[in-house]
Design goal:
By secondary structure, this protein is mainly β. The protein contains 1 helix and 8 strands; from the N terminus they run αββββββββ. An 8-stranded antiparallel beta barrel has the order 1-2-3-4-5-6-7-8. Strand 1 and strand 2 form a beta hairpin.
């Protein structure tokens, strides 16, 4: 009986979290809740780096389930500051972020894919991988899962 109760409780909890996630992305602009600033921590375990460091996401433009902005890396292990262009989309209940080109700095592995799940409407977590090995990162681990991150939305005054 205890096992049956735990199964029902876990199922109800999972449904509640899924319903909450869907409530964030409603209407003709399902990605609108993402617009703004996000901050968190990235833990990398590939490309010769085993470290955690600050990660920021700025989302400025939203069109339907697609959006764009920047990644900001304020304090990388090998550089003090880098900024990259980012595009993203909500697809199949997940948030995908694509790192495409360098705006400032130079210590970034490009063509990254950040696959995220929402924890709440103001927090997400996920993992990073690349779509092909890069000159600055020939590590095959990066093709599958080269790092993990958690981001929280920042309410600015």
């Amino acid at each position: 009986m205890k096992q049956m109760f735990l199964v029902i409780l876990c199922s109800a909890t999972a449904w509640t979290v899924s319903a909450q996630r869907l409530d964030c992305a409603l209407g003709d602009q399902p990605a609108a809740f993402l617009q703004g600033f996000w901050r968190g921590t990235f833990t990398q375990y590939s490309c010769g780096i085993s470290a955690s460091y600050p990660m920021e996401l700025e989302i400025w433009k939203v069109e339907g389930n697609r959006f764009s902005g920047y990644f900001v890396w304020p304090d990388l292990p090998v550089s003090q500051y880098s900024k990259t262009n980012m595009t993203g989309e909500i697809k199949d209940g997940r948030i995908y972020l694509y790192e495409q080109s360098i705006v400032a700095g130079n210590a970034v592995v490009l063509n990254g894919i950040y696959e995220s799940s929402l924890l709440t409407c103001k927090s997400m977590k996920g993992f990073w991988r690349v779509n092909q090995l890069q000159p600055g990162c020939p590590d095959p681990v990066s093709l599958e899962n080269g790092g993990r991150y958690t981001l929280w939305k920042v309410d600015l005054p």
